[in-house]
Each structure stands twice: as C-alpha cells, then as structure tokens.
C-alpha cells in the first residue's frame, strides 16, 4: 500500500493551503496599524457611516434625564464568551458615563454572573472617570436569574416598578426579545434594540424605536467613544472587506470569461 505523498510547505514555512489565509491576516494587521497610527496622531481617517440607532443613544439618555426616570440596559442573556455580550460592554461604558454626567439613574440587568461582575466594574469606573464615584449605586447593577424566562419575568417586574424612560437592549437575545421589547413599547419607553441573531431582529425592528442590525453592534463602542484604537480597527476591517469583495468580483469575472484558465485557482490553493 502506497503512502500519500507529504505536502511540502510553501516557501519552506507555510502549510499547503494556508498562504491565502496568511496574506489576508497580514493585510488586516497592516490596515489596522496604519489607521490606528493616523488616528492617534490626529490625521484624517475615513469615518464610519452614521448609524441612526447609535445616534439616538444620547437622545434616549437626555429624555430620561428630563423625565427624572432611569435608563435601563440589557446586554443579552449570554455569558462573557459571547461576542455580542462583549460588544454590549463597550456601549455600557458610554451609557454609564453619560448617565453619571447628567445625574441620571442607570440600571444594568444581567442574566449571567460573569457579565454582572464585569459590568459592575465598568460602571464603577465610568462614574469615577466622570468625577461622580459617590453617585454609583452597586444595587443598580443586578444579576436577576440565569434561567431565561425567570430573567425575563424579573425584567418586566423592574419595568413596572422602576418605570425607565429609556430601554437599551444590545447583545444575544432569543425568545425573550419580543416579550421585553413589547413590554417596553407599551410603557412608552424610547427603545434601542440590537442583536446579530437574525431570527430575533424582526422583533426589535417591529417593537423598538431604533434597531441595530448585525455588525452595527460590533462597531458601537468605536462609534460612540471615537477612541483611536477601536475606530481604526473598525475602519481597517471595512477596508479588508472591500478588498475581499474586489477579489471575489475579479475571480467571478475571470471564471466566467476564461473557465479553462486555472492560474487563479492554483494561486488560491497555495
């Protein structure tokens, strides 16, 4: 029985079939480094397009401030290892800072003990940075339940008792999304909902005033904070996506016009 011939590494270093992946990661690193460097030195970089849901965050906090009622934030129901939960943490920092600045009560309601601990520290730091450490109330950052619908029931009870004027829901949501969004809508809250779970997006679009769709939640912390590292990273990723789209377009045209020409296929298989 003959043994399969062992594939030789490309250029003596890279495994067969991994060259294209290496080039993509290398280009992403270069794009991000260039844009972060430009942003840090005050030079102009492309701006992220305006996102209505993120533009409305400060409006929602302002409305709650005028009404003397709390701002509520729900970072989904998943743990800290969920990318959507991590995306929500960046938004929480901005919202907590704005609430501290305007002396507006901030409620953060969690369904997992790990995000609860992290959010408590983020909120505490936000109040400290705004010079209002005395205004931070750890009881307003709450772990309600690790069970999906027990958490949902607890949130509805808080809606009824605390009467928030603004409800921001960003993260990974499932069957509870419509229940929470509909309850908030009935109570007249200004609502901003965002998730990358496509099966829940229609509920946020239907029941919330503003909806963040898919990748918009991952750009939220950079969009709101304008922090150079975050902003440059998001723009760099967008540049790479445009390059990949261009490669796909060129490859599709070449495969259609000259289907017998295999050099592009061979190049991608390196």
What does this structure look like?
By secondary structure, the protein is of the alpha/beta class. It has a six-stranded parallel β-sheet, sandwiched between helices. Helix 3 links the parallel strand 1 and strand 2. The relative contact order is 0.15. It folds into two domains: 62 residues, no CATH class; 167 residues, Rossmann fold (3-Layer(aba) Sandwich). 56% of the residues lie in helices and 10% in strands. Helix 2 packs parallel to helix 3, helix 3 packs parallel to helix 4 and helix 5 runs parallel beside helix 6. The mean pLDDT is 86. The longest helix has 30 residues.
Feature tags:
Rossmann fold; 6-stranded parallel β-sheet; alpha/beta; 2 domains
What's this model, at a glance?
The protein is α/β, with parallel strands linked by helices and 270 residues long. Helices cover 56% and strands 10% of the residues.
**Uncertain runs with pLDDT below 50, 5 residues or more?**
none
Secondary-structure element pattern, one letter each: HHEHEHEHEHEHEHHH
CATH architecture of the largest domain: 3-Layer(aba) Sandwich
Output the radius of gyration.
23 Å
CATH fold-level name of the largest domain = Rossmann fold
Helix and strand composition category: alpha/beta
* Alpha carbon gap, first and last residue: 28 Å
Percentage of helical residues? 55-70%
Q: Report the sheet-strand fraction.
A: 5-15%
The level-1 CATH class of the largest domain: Alpha Beta
Mean pLDDT: 86
- Overall, the morphology is elongated
Strand order of the largest sheet: 3-2-1-4-5-6
Question: How many extended strands?
Answer: 6
Number of domains: 2
Largest sheet: 6 strands, parallel
Number of helices: 10
């Amino acid at each position: 029985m003959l043994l399969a011939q062992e594939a030789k590494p490309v250029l003596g270093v890279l495994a067969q079939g991994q060259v294209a992946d290496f080039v993509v990661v290398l280009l992403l690193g270069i794009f991000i480094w260039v844009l972060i460097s430009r942003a840090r030195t005050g030079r102009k970089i492309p701006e992220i397009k305006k996102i209505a849901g993120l533009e409305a965050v400060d409006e929602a906090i302002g409305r709650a401030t005028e009404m003397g009622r709390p701002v509520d934030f729900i970072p989904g129901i998943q743990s800290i290892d969920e990318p959507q939960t991590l995306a929500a943490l960046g938004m929480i920092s901005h919202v907590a800072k704005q609430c501290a600045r305007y002396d507006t009560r901030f409620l953060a309601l969690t369904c997992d003990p790990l995000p609860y601990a992290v959010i408590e520290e983020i909120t505490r730091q936000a109040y400290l940075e705004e010079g209002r450490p005395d205004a931070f109330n750890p009881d307003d950052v709450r772990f309600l339940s690790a069970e999906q619908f027990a958490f949902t029931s607890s949130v509805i009870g808080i809606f009824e008792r605390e009467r928030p004027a603004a409800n921001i829901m960003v993260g990974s949501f499932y069957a509870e999304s419509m229940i929470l969004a509909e309850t908030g809508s009935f109570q007249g809250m200004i609502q901003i909902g965002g998730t990358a779970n496509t099966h829940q997006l229609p509920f946020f679009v239907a029941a919330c005033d503003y909806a963040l769709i898919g990748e918009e939640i991952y750009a939220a912390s950079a969009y709101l904070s304008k922090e150079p590292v975050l902003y440059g990273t998001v723009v760099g990723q967008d540049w790479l996506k445009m390059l990949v789209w261009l490669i796909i377009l060129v490859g599709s045209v070449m495969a259609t016009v000259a289907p017998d020409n295999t050099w592009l296929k061979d190049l991608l298989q390196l």
